[in-house]
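User: Could you check the structure of this?
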Amino acid sequence: MYFCNYQGFVGVLDSQAVLYVWDQCFMQQWDHQVLQDVCLLLLLLLKYDFMLTNNYNEVKQVFTCLPAKLYTLDIVRGYQHLIRGDDPKHIPDLNRHWHSVTKPVLPENVEDDKEEIEEEEEELQMSPQPEEEEEEEEKLTAVGLKYFRLKLIMRQSLPKGKLPQKHFKALLDFKVSNLSLTVSFFVGDEMICSKSLTKTPRLIKEEMLFASLESQRKRGKIDTKVYLVQMAKEHLIFDVAEDLQNQGISTCDLEPYGIINISYRTSTKDNDGISIPLGWARVKLYNLTTQEADDLSSQPTTSQQAADTILQEGRTTVMLSVLSGEQTVPLYPGNPNFKVNSPEDGEEDSRNMLKEGSEVILDVFEVMIDDDFSQAPSSASLISEGEDDLEPPWVPQIESAILSPVDVNLKDTFDFYIDGIRFLPDNASISKIIGQVVSPTLNHIPEFQGIPVLDSPARSPEIKQRIMLSGPFIQSNIVVLSLYTVDKDTHELVTIGSGTVPLFHPHGDKVELNAGGHQLRVISSLPDPENLSSQQNLKNSSVIVPGCSILVRILPHTEDLIPSPDYYSRSYASNECKPSSGELRVLRQFQKDPHFPSLVRDSVEALQESEAFASPGGDDKTLSAWLTDRLNIAKHIPRGSAPILLDLTRCVRYNQKNGLTVAMKAAYNISGELL
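Assistant: Sure, the predicted structure tokens are below.
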């Protein structure tokens, strides 16, 4: 093929991409199939560029000029997509360079080719052109999907019907990492484009349902398994306005929607490269309303309406606005049936492994106004190329999340929320927080504690604890939060450190509540509650724990509990926790560490096994009780003894990829011969 004439893609691809291709060749002993796959991949990635060409010379220029402009990461993802056996029709959408190229780029020295193309363009201009319409459709607003979560209810016995035996065997050995998710953008029956998640999902929880109570007591036949799955935290963006225009598709009469396809990939000796359709869901992306143009012009335009897509059709105006927010949609088994619009329309198919009650949860957002996507620091500004699938380890607070000052009475009751912990050190295991109001200590408010949620991430546990603090207070009161853990190496109950936050702000003759969310940096110290002069003195006199912080909120008292916001909603005042360049490298290592337990329950079970606990594991109640008992200070720290601080020299494990940086500050007693 054309590409191979250039000495194994040298001179065709960028140097980094060439090295990647050669790596694949070496690992496969220079199997010709690798070269064929790469050639096919390049053709697919350049599909849209080829479709823009009008003659031989333009096709030639696509072959010679554009492969070198492909991003290396797009080539890597496309190659992995191809060799996994996934549908190749999704590969052209992986080419991010395509969106900035509207026409093949011609070298300046190809004068003859230019003249020939210009002549052809003149001929096209001389041909009759359709008259332009008086009113043009405005571009369809780009829509994004994120935070995909799955609830899969799977049969554990062979369904009646024609489900292939090899499919059944593959699904019985169910591995979450083999799941793939693809979203296709439809207008009517026309599919405009498709995009897939490329990263590995993770299992949040697995439950077993038995065929009967008797079977459950005897741990017998399992009828059903329920899997709660968190898909990779990627954004799928659909900006299809130009595609609709090029294909001549109008959305005036048809409401755009998305089809989510869940498939299961497997590769065994018996069924090599099988992609089993597991289920599908239909998600509504836009709200469609129609209104007479005269009625619309008489109404004031709000800021939200200004962001909507307005399409004209005669005197009727069709308004399409992105249906932003979280959606839960039913997951139907098998391949898509486009006549299904509601759960009542779907019928359970006994020939499939997926059962009724399965669902997909996702967030839909408008790309133009979504804070999480458009305002959060881009991964490119925080990490090097090739790591853009990771979330930023730190985000600043947005102005809209800063609460207005709240004048308070020092005798009032306030709500103090402990929402979670960010980035426990490598040598920490299970954890808990103990809090106290100090400066001075208020005896009428006892110590309080927060225990992590078992199904939350082990590295950054969620706590979700509300404590009602009742007055009287004084305006110098501070909340001190101490973070405890069991050291993985010594198995001792130790303290990682503490964080502090003032309850009030003095404002002239008045006192204001320090309301809102706060991200508190953890310092390697336990303050003396009776000798705490100021919050800042404590922070300046101690060593920080790299990257570790506590999320809290201080709010006026309400009857109902207010759920904690997602960290990436940027609701927490986080300036004091902004990571240094060194901390950022540590946090990236934490995020990519495959050896740290995934969930808090995994940390509990791992600690039980390392301490040779007689009956490790168990249900949630058993695990929570064991965690609470293992972190009991009165039981595991002698009375009158101060807790031991976690050894920070072991808080970050050595990573060969990151290496070490050593700085010599001083040297003593060195003889002259060594200088």
